[in-house]
User: Which sequence fits this backbone?
């Protein structure tokens, strides 16, 4: 079974750390793709998301954006159902 969540991150990004912490607190498996110094992975992220900033987060096939969007979904009570659907 693959992880229901995919994150493109960099090592020292505080938003990346916060996104991973939120997912860990919910006991969600995620695939982390580091774009640190990897121009190909960064280009892949930009092409898929249309954005250059990290983190970029997908739940299943749904691109939700960055940490702010992830946290907003959690505050709205919508994150858990998205995560369950992606399982």
Assistant:
């Amino acid at each position: 079974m693959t992880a229901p969540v995919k994150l493109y991150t960099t090592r020292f990004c505080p938003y990346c750390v916060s996104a991973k912490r939120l997912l860990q607190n919910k006991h969600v498996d995620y695939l982390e793709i580091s774009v640190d110094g990897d121009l190909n992975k960064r280009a892949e992220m930009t092409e898929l998301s249309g954005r250059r900033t990290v983190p970029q987060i997908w739940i299943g096939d749904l691109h939700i954006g960055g940490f702010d969007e992830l946290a907003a979904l959690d505050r709205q009570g919508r994150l858990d159902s998205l995560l369950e659907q992606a399982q």
